[in-house]
Fold this protein.
Amino acid sequence: MLTIGKLASLAGTTPNTLRYYEREGLIPIASKGDNGYRLYPQDAARRVHFIRQAQQCGFTLAEIHELLTIPERASACCSDVRTLALEKKLALEAKIKLMKAMSAELDVLINNCVDDTHPLDECPILNALNRLPAETKQ
């Protein structure tokens, strides 16, 4: 059995994170020792590692919960996991596309503001951000 501190150390996280995972149902509720300390089974470290790896791939905690419950379904198969991974990849690609567009828009704003001596009320960036959509079409 692992104390919360030992599990946190093994998993590279904090005890608060483990308590949160426990509340969210991502890891089993720890048993309590005679001293009142939370005690986790050895395999809890593997589960926390899984959670952290899934987060690195962009999965939300709700999506990770779904991934963790797939093996509990009698009819589950690898394609169920693959479907979730494909959905996540498509969502990430859409976010990347949006962020690239945002970055390009910022490039335009920055390039329009080349004179550092403009008074604030003439700042091209602030003026562009304040402009109403109808004003940009004129």
Notes: Residues 2-76 form a domain with the Multidrug-efflux Transporter Regulator; Chain: A; Domain 2 fold (CATH 1.10.1660.10).
